[in-house]
Design goal:
By secondary structure, the protein is α/β, with parallel strands linked by helices. 32% of the residues lie in helices and 11% in strands. Strand 10, helix 9 and strand 11 form a beta-alpha-beta unit.
């Protein structure tokens, strides 16, 4: 979520609402089948200029274990493991192969690659300022080791700049050295990286500029694409999520124009990688405008990105899935989470959180199980780290019930030992 929104987690608190029930998805599927989800539009299933999807690599061994969410209804189906399916891309050169999409899943050389991961926001180190510290790689290793211990194979790094600090620059050599380190360290662990561009919004705000002006983003997009367009460990780009839902047709067109300009610029600068415009929430607002459908249908947008922080968000999952199928694009839940104060294994009581009267483990389970049933291609929770406190969203062995859920749904088997040899949380 946006750092500025962390306290309210993607929206105002909505009282009431049913307890989480994965079975609601089946009801939603029936409703979607009857009523649909608005106007459909055609869209490509892979980046322009990327060519046809490569055929499956028959030399890779097929096994009957740990295929991950979204790759099959049976955990014992005869398929490649997530690690084996991803291996050609993670070992790839500048010529590829790169992750692609078959219209509903992310693939490498034609084989489905289920993705489960976490955001990388260094809360204990002060957030954005940690990215400007030359000693940051030790923390990067620590958090990636935590991810490996929970069987995760995707990391989304966020908030390299903030909206208040002065003197920040888009080409800060320490920031990009740390990002380079993250990519290399993730690849060694069999982990893909989401290149999230959203922190550029905070950098523009710190300079007194208007981040809604797409032309201001083009030099930054070109800079990042030039650095990473040949890196096969990148899963996809995410431009910027959580836009304020438009309330009028003119606002909707302006938002569409922003995402069209930025995504087309990114596609032109880097034809190798998939793109999502970003993870959206409040997607139930102003349905008469069809605003998020129009954005997600853009030819330069490959993935429907969402964020899940409320009962409303859970209830909308079947409709989002149905729309994504209608335009031939996979869905990735780019962010979901809940504060520790609502309870780890059981609901702590009191007022519901955005309509959710359940503990964190039940909420995480509902996101994973419902999304898997609906064919979501990936999941990213907010946030991996050792911070403990009522307002913290972090997940670690210190929150054992939700940690167990994350590990159970992990695309990879949990690592027996962490690479650095340190304890996960001291």
């Amino acid at each position: 979520m946006s750092v500025s929104h962390r306290g309210r987690s993607g929206g105002v608190l909505r009282p009431g609402g049913p307890r989480l029930r994965a079975s609601l998805v089946a009801i939603g599927l029936v409703l979607v089948a009857v009523g649909g989800c608005g106007t459909s539009a055609a869209g490509p299933t892979r980046p322009a200029g990327s060519g046809a999807t490569d055929p499956p690599d028959s030399s890779l061994p097929r096994v009957t274990e740990r295929v991950g969410p979204g790759q099959g209804s049976s955990p014992t189906a005869t398929r490649l493991t997530a690690a084996d399916a991803a291996a050609p891309c993670l070992a790839g050169s500048s010529a590829g192969p790169f992750l692609r999409t078959d219209g509903s899943r992310l693939t490498c050389t034609g084989n489905p690659v289920p993705l489960t991961g976490f955001t990388f926001y260094p809360a204990l180190l002060g957030g954005a300022k940690a990215w400007h510290d030359p000693s940051f790689p030790s923390y990067i290793d620590h958090v990636l080791d935590m991810g490996a211990a929970a069987g995760q194979n995707l990391v989304r790094a966020t908030d390299q700049w903030d909206s208040h600090a002065g003197g920040q620059t888009a080409d800060d050599p320490i920031v990009w050295s740390n990002m380079d380190y993250l990519l290399a360290a993730a690849r060694k662990r069999g982990v893909f990286v989401v290149i999230d561009l959203s922190a550029f919004r905070w950098l523009l705000m710190s300079q007194g500029a208007d981040p809604s002006q797409p032309d201001l983003w083009i030099p930054f997009i070109d800079q990042v694409a030039a650095r990473y367009r040949d890196n096969t460990a990148i899963a996809f780009y995410s431009i910027v999520g959580e836009p304020k839902p438009p309330t009028t047709a003119s606002e909707s067109q302006a938002l569409l124009g922003f995402y069209r300009t930025t995504s087309e610029a990114l596609r032109a600068a880097d034809p190798n990688h998939l793109i999502t415009v970003g993870g959206f929430n409040h997607m139930e607002d102003h349905p008469e405008l069809g605003w998020w459908q129009a954005i997600d249908a853009l030819a330069s947008n490959d993935i429907v990105g969402v964020k899940t922080y409320s009962q409303h968000d859970l209830d909308l999952m079947p409709a989002i899935s149905a729309y994504a199928r209608s335009v031939g694009k996979p869905v990735v839940d780019e962010e979901f989470g809940m504060p520790q104060s609502f309870g780890d294994g059981t609901f702590a009581g009191g007022a519901a959180y955005n309509g959710l009267a359940d503990g964190r483990a039940a909420f995480f389970d509902a996101v994973y199980s419902s999304g898997s049933m609906l064919g979501y291609a990936g999941f990213i929770f907010w946030n991996m780290g050792c911070e403990m406190g009522p307002d913290s969203y972090e997940v670690s062995p210190g929150t054992p019930a939700v940690w167990a859920v994350v590990a159970r749904y992990g695309a990879l088997p949990p690592a027996d030992q962490v690479a650095s040899g340190r304890s996960l949380c001291g």
